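Lecture 7 notes: from sequence to structure.

We start with a single chain of 428 residues. Read the sequence below before looking at the structure.
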Amino acid sequence: MKLRRVTSFLITVLTLLFINLTPSFVQSSPESDLPEGAIARLNAHLGKAAAPFYDRIYSVAYSPDGKTLASGHSDTFIAGKSEGGKICLWDTDNYTLKNVFTGSSPPVVWSVTYSPDGKTLASGSWYGTVHLWDVGSGTVKHIITDIDDDEDIIYSVVYSPDGGTLAGGRTDYTVSLWDTDSFILKDILKGHTGYVHSVVYSPDGGTLASGAGYPKDSTVRLWGADSGTLKHTLTTHTSSVLEVAYSPDGKMLASGSLDGTIRIWDVEAGVEKHVLIGDTWSIFSVSFSPDGKTLASGGNGLKPGHNDYLVHLWDVETGTKKHTFVGHTDKVYSVRFSPDGETLASGSWDGTVLLWKLVLPATPNDPTAVEEPHLVGDVNEDGIVNIQDLVLVAGNFGKTGENAADVNGDGVVDIRDLVKVAGVFSTL
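Now the structure, written as tokens:
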């Protein structure tokens, strides 16, 4: 009798889930098969492709609390009309689309970043503009347009740790610093000889790092955040530097380049610690894990024309490759760790974001060995998510405390756990 009630309950819930699925849900039917190690594919195509740059993803960013993932996209066409670039906000618990910010006329959203309090999302784009969005309402709070130049692009935006300053890397070879209360331009950092593709603050807010490229630059520069003076210039890359990232303790800086290398720098000494060379023709994005032990990278494949767009995980201490995720079908333009370090998001020109469950050291004595990623939703740990896992979740409904059926780890087994299991149902 109990089994009959559980089965009846499951049928009812699953019917409601799958009858009411909308395009905002993570998976459409043709994409139900996920690549190995992935727990979700986020796809927010709002119309049919009408241009070569339609709906490519250029940037992803987690909210400070990790509950939302933002993705910045290129031009979107709705009912045959260009809506400009868009920003999608995804619920990281159930992988649904929470909101879409549209109406920003620039055709590409190059960069997205959250304010430290998570209430504002800044986006850098064409025409030298930075849009500041109210996360709760989805409305534009302010548009920074201090340079009237249709050719200028804000490639990268980042908040200082205290939230008082917003920095932007530009194609006019400079870094702009704006006060976030008045939106007044506080300073312009000059010295690069090419497009500034990436800017990032050190965790203590004392230093701002910038990476630059075309036409004549391949350097990383470290600036005093308050003084604007140049502290160090790191010069060993041989082509454009596309992203820079600080380690959580601020002692190391990673830089990814079109030369196909990642360089990890000792910030205080201003010297290289490691040069990482993988199966990637060029490196578009680098990101440190919250514990600082792992570096993720995304890029452009082995060489032009090859369909091998990989995401690598590197051991920061040894400089060795730990794991490779394969699943995108175009350039991997942005990678970011979730704040809890359990998930890696990768955004690609294929128009999707893949969420990867991270591999962990197999033993404390072998940091380069890895075990297979744990599959979210595999409650009984038999290697597949199926009806048995749904039965276990349903049978534990309402229970609190530590429980394998509490898939999302919020302390109670409820409908959200069932939705999460259903989201990866039969993916292996």
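Residues 2-19 form the longest helix (18 residues). Keep this in mind for problem set 3.
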